[in-house]
Structures are given as structure tokens and as C-alpha cells.
Amino acid sequence: MTLSPLITTPRTYLHTPDFLTLDQIRKLDADPEIMRYITNGQPRTVKESENWLSIKLEEYKKNGFGLMPVFKKSDDSFIGWGGLKHLENSSHIEVGYRLDKTYWGQGFATEITLAIIKYAKEKLELNQLVAVTDLQNKASKRVLVKCGFKHVSEAYYYHTNVDYFELNL
């Protein structure tokens, strides 16, 4: 990439969401396995993906933080996204990520989440982050615990029951 990334990790770098393309988002949104815990495995339509991308760009402009595309340093390939957003109907800031399944089980989610936590603390001067996962998403729960999040309770966000986690920075 020609511009400096916002966040770097040993194997990846994250840019502002204006580096996201619809094709990249479609690769994730169209895969039922990737969307299993997001939309119950229902791929998003092209229009839904366009709308999602538009909302994420606006949120970043408004808040000064958001969901960012993640690229692999070794070949500049897009591997997913990670970042921060407001948790639905709350003032809490939520960490989140979604990776192409090619990169699952290789420690990328943990590496990216740790870097986002550091960014939130050092650059944004936040003192707490939250995260939610589908009740069945054991892999994401493991990532959050590895990154220091503590399970607080079950809760209801995004029209579903979720496990709710907090991390004090």
C-alpha cells in the first residue's frame, strides 16, 4: 500500500475503511460459513453489502474510528476487517473482526485484536472496550479471552442472544 497504515502487527496492517472495496466485502458477506454467526449463515445480497460498507464509511468519518480492512504484509492480500464501533444502542465501544476463512485458526484474529486494543488505549485513550459473540461461536470467545476480555453475561444485541465481554484498559 502507498499510504501508511493506522495499525501494524507482525503479519498484517490495517488501513482506514476507505481502502475497503465492495469486492472485498462481498467475498466475506457471500460466504455462508463466514456469515454463520452474523446472519445465521445467510449470505448478504449485493445491496446489503453496499449498504453495510456505506454505513461503515460514514461511522468512521463521524466517530474517528471504525472497522478497518486488514491486509497481509507478505503479499498485500486482503484477509478481512477488524476495528471498533459503537455497540448497538449503547455508549460502549465494541471491538470486532471478520476474517476470510482461509486465515482462520492461524492466530490472525488474536494478533489483530491485540493491536486494536493497543490502538484504542494509546491513540484513542479509551479506558474500556466490550465485545459480543454469538452464543455458539467458541473460536471468537477464545480469541477474546486470550486478549484479556472477561465474560460478563449473556445479553441481547443485534437481534440475538450473545455472550457479552468487557476489557478495562
Q: Helix share of residues?
A: 25-40%
Radius of gyration: 15 Å
The number of distinct β-strands equals 8
Distance between the termini: 31 Å
Strand order of the largest sheet: 1-2-3-4-5
Q: Give the helix/strand class.
A: alpha+beta
Using the alpha-carbon principal axes, give the shape: globular
Strand portion, in percent?
25-35%
Q: If helices are DSSP runs of H or I spanning 4 or more residues, what is the number of helices?
A: 4
**Uncertain parts:** none
- Major beta sheet summary: 5 strands, antiparallel
Return the string of H and E elements: EEHHEEEHEHEE
The overall pLDDT, averaged over residues, is: 94
Please provide a written account of the structure.
This protein has 169 residues and is of the alpha+beta class. Helices cover 30% and strands 30% of the residues. The mean pLDDT is 94.
